[in-house]
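Section 5.1 Outputs to date
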Amino acid sequence: MPWDSSTVAFPRRTQPGTRKGFDLKLFYHHAGFVKMTVDLPAELVQAVKLRAVMERRPVKECIAEVLRVGLGLQAAGNERAPGGLPVFRCRADAPARAMTAERLIALEHQCQVEEDLRRAGHSV
């Protein structure tokens, strides 16, 4: 049976001396997004806005992702190192773990050359 306002009403917390009532707003939380006002430090707001611009996504999506990852509801997808560089997690037995830095740099260079050739219209 779908939820609607006639199905259930949740008790509202009331201050001492006020009239007890029901809060139907809590009922709508299951439907999707809920607006919420939170005071955040300016540097956090700036960082979230910057990430949203860089990823070309709405700020609310970035905040939702950070909360999901922080609460353990979602695996980190766009993890960043302290310098802002992306972090890519791999299995313990991944081939890259056994490669030397020189081999990884050579592989990166090879990929960049192949990409340049494809963009120039040459076959690889």
